[in-house]
Each structure stands twice: as C-alpha cells, then as structure tokens.
Amino acid sequence: MKLRTSKSLTSWIGNVNVHRRRSILLVVFLAGAAAVFSTATFAQSPAPAVKSEVASRNPLDAPGLEQKVNTLLQKMTLEEKIGQLVQYSAGQATGPTSGRTDDQDMVRKGQVGSLFNATGAKKTNALQHIAVDNSRLHIPLIFGLDAIHGFRTTFPINLGLAATWEPELVEQASRVAAREASAAGVRWAFSPMVDIARDARWGRISEGAGEDPYLGSLMARAYVRGYQGERLDAPDSIVACAKHYVGYGGRKAAGITTPRKFPNILFANFICRHSTPRKKPEPPRS
User: Fold this and answer.
1) Largest CB tally within 10 Å, which of 11, 89, 110, 215?
2) Under a CB-based contact definition with an 8 Å cutoff, are residues 262 and 247 in contact?
3) Do 27 and 85 meet the contact criterion of CB atoms below 8 Å apart?
C-alpha cells in the first residue's frame, strides 16, 4: 500500500469525514447547547409523567440550522475539525484517555469534541462553560455514557427486558434513563446494542435482545424512542447510538463465526431492522 506524504495526508484529512463532522455539529448544537442552560435547573425539577410519544418534526431540519453549521465549518481550522471527532474518557478508564489528570486545556483549545464517563451537573457544567465561554468558536461539548439499561435507576439487563416481549415497557424504561442521565449532564447514550447473538457463550449476549432480528428491531426502536423522546432539543432528551460493528454478534464463544454464514445472518438482520413491523410479537408458547 502506498504511503501518503505529510502534505497529501493533511489534505486528505481535511477532506475526509465532511458529512460526519456536519452531523456531529448538528447534534452538538442541539444537545450540547441545551445542556449548558438546562442541566442544573432540570436536575431540581420534578419528572413529568412518562409519555410514549415521539417527535413529529425533526429539529435537525430547522430552517437556517444547516447554514449555521456550514458557516461554522468554514471558520474551523483543520485541527479544530479533527478535534470535533476526538472523544476521551474523562472518568473511569473505558476506551482511550487523554493521559492527563483533567481535560480542561484540551477543551479550551478545541481539541476535544465529546467526553465519555463525565457525569454530574457540577462537573459537566464546568467543562461545558469552558468549551462555550473560553474556546475560539464556542462549540459545546457532548457528554456520552454507557447507560444501556438505566442510569440511576437500574432496570433488568437488556436480554431480560427483551424477554418481556413488551417494547412499550422498554420505551418507558429508557425514557426514565434519559430523564435521569440528562439531569446529570449526559446527552448521549451508547445504546441500544443491536447485535444479533447466535451463541449463548458469547460474553456480550446479555446486552442485546437475543437471536431474533425481528424482536431485536422492535426493542431497538423502543430504546431509541425512549431515549430521544419527542424532540432532540428537549432538556430531557438524549441521543441514542445503535451499536456495534456489523457481524459483531455472529460469534461462537470467543471466536468469530465462519464467513459462509454471514450472508444469511446479516441479510435477515438488515431486512428486519429496516422494515416496518406489521404486528406486535407474541411470546413463545409453552
């Protein structure tokens, strides 16, 4: 493989991930800015009654928002664009860390776009004010967390929730998690886990909905609706993030399944997850 020179690499990096940067900035505008002004007050507000409604309008389609993002992108340096794609763990060691005792200097320089494992209104507000008040372009941070089956309130594991065959119940549980997480400054849940597991010996089977793509699709939809609520720019809305890699759940214990079996598994998974369910699933009969 031909290696790129420093000059060509810089040019390549400047042109890659344009759509990804735009998407990240759109979400950051909505989720991050709302967190700056609402997190502390929302933490003291009583939780409203649980609703199972979702947005009828997409706030990402708001007039003028795309132009604001494009204008901001034109002002950004290459380093600042790369910074928006950088995420570090600011709490417990899950994934890469910055190697520092705190990330305030990097936030101030626009070298970080999101932080993982930073929770609590006091901590997230302090970091958010550095990003909004002290960085050159005042781009807010977005805080993420593995809130996969609850935040303060712990619900059954995802496999157990799927065993209820009740997507409405799962939606209500994730709505509770969204209200609690957003009150602590978290606006991004690394959930739902949509891997279709084929071997019960695989260590991450508990995070998903089991081996049936249709049931998994209903549960995934319920999680997304519950996390995101009616509008992404609402103070109690958090962004859902479906995971993991394609084929990640097709494992046999510690080893990956054979490539020959991938087409049928992935095809069924893809079709079910991108089609509209026609009826509510029924639990298996004894």
Assistant:
1) 110
2) yes
3) no
Pick from 179, 197, 276: nearest CA to 234: 179
What residues does each domain of the chain span?
Answer: 20-43+70-144, 146-279
Of 3.20.20.300, 3.40.50.300, 2.70.98.50, 3.60.140.10, which CATH number belongs to 146-279? 3.20.20.300
Element (H, E) at 144: strand 142-145
Could you report the per-residue pLDDT of 77-135, keeping only the tens digit for each?
999 999 999 998 876 666 555 556 567 889 999 999 999 989 999 999 999 999 999 99
pLDDT in tens, 10-61: 443 344 344 455 555 555 555 554 544 444 444 444 444 444 445 446 677 7
Q: What are 127's two structure tokens?
A: 């970091």
Residue 207 CA to residue 186 CA, distance in Å, equals 20
